[in-house]
Amino acid sequence: MTIIADTTELAAACRRLARFDYVTVDTEFMRETTYWPKLCVIQMASPEEAVIVDAMAPDLDLDPFFRLMKNEKVMKVFHAARQDIEIVYHRGGLIPHPVFDTQVAAMVCGFGDSISYDQLVQRTSGARIDKSSRFTDWSRRPLSQRQVEYALADVTHLREVYIALSARLDEQQRTEWVREEMEVLTSPETYRLEPEEAWKRLKLRVRKPIELAIMQELAAWREREAQARDVPRGRVLKDDAIYEIAQQQPTSPAALSQLRTVPKGFERSRAAEEILAAVRKALALPKERMPRIPKLRTASNGNGAAVDLLKVLLKMISESHGVAAKVIATVDDLE
Question: Where are the domains of the chain?
Answer without folding.
Answer: 3-190, 195-289, 303-334
